């Protein structure tokens, strides 16, 4: 029944719902001619009245189909079928022209389940005239063929409409998912960018304040200058994240991590080279370093932080207060990136039972997995 409606305001809206199907009622002139041939007087008036009533039922059923008023649709269909039977009294086999329109309604309402009903109407049209001896008519092959062919044509028509509806729905769903994925990407990137950068700015601003209090104004000014430069860089990163263009590398994040850890008073042990890391993992491992070092500075209260890398793995460890693996936004975003690359994340405390005595984040990407870094 949904095939009746491709779009509100299209063929199912306004005057079109009446005019387009009403044009084809012109073929009921054949029934009217048979009424004139076989009936006269009051009988002829009744025959013509049944034709008018059938037209009203047919158009009403079409309109109900557009509005998806299923109960009313089938009620009008049954009334139209009953009128077909009554019209045989006045138009004889000319009443079987009604079956063409009933086939249209049957296919619209039942689709492939309508074929037994359409076949039945075709058989009645074919053999019905011969069953009534008083009609003195033979088998109506042309009428039966018209019923079946119209049913086939309408089945194809409604199938095309249904396919268009499903295609439009699929496109709408793709657009919705694309928008949702873009929002998720922006939220994740902004968290990673702002969380890291604001933490660094806070640490450096605090260091500059302490230096100023001790009278070391030159170093305090240098730290404030770095805060200004970092703020400008962060603003550019945010703009790039929203626009979807941003370059994150492992080497760049290690250089930033060294400065951030130094400013926060954490001793850093970083790899001297990242040449052994697979080039396609540089961006992913850069995000691992950024998120992990940000958490070390903000939450760990650590004295020492170590970053170790291999060809397809990276590990960040600190000696802070540790804790239990949580579901923070940063860790969730990191897992999403690693999952997209076909790798695994292990995060937790390194003490007894995974509690206390520091924290460790390790990411492994198997060599047989194609790397698909989450697209910016």
How does this model look, in words?
With 376 residues, the chain is an alpha+beta fold. It folds into 2 domains: 2-173, no CATH class; 252-376, Histidine kinase-like ATPase, C-terminal domain (Heat Shock Protein 90), CATH 3.30.565. Helices cover 64% and strands 7% of the residues. The chain has 11 helices and 5 strands; from the N terminus they run αααααααααβαββαββ. The protein has helices spanning 16-23, 29-38, 42-66, 70-91, 98-110, 115-131, 141-213, 217-243, 250-263, 282-300, 329-340; strands at residues 267-269, 304-309, 313-318, 344-349, 359-364. Strands 1-2-3-5-4 form a 5-stranded mixed β-sheet, with helices on one face. Helix 10 (282-300) links the parallel strand 1 (267-269) and strand 2 (304-309). It is rod-shaped. The two termini are 43 Å apart. Residues 6-12 and 372-376 have low confidence and may be disordered.
Features:
376 residues; alpha+beta; Heat Shock Protein 90; 2 domains; 11 helices; 7% strand; disordered C terminus
Ends distance? 43 Å
Give the helices and strands as they follow along the chain: HHHHHHHHHEHEEHEE
Radius of gyration: 39 Å
Main sheet properties: 5 strands, mixed
* Helix amount: 55-70%
Number of separate strands: 5
Strand order of the largest sheet: 1-2-3-5-4
Q: What integer is the average pLDDT?
A: 80
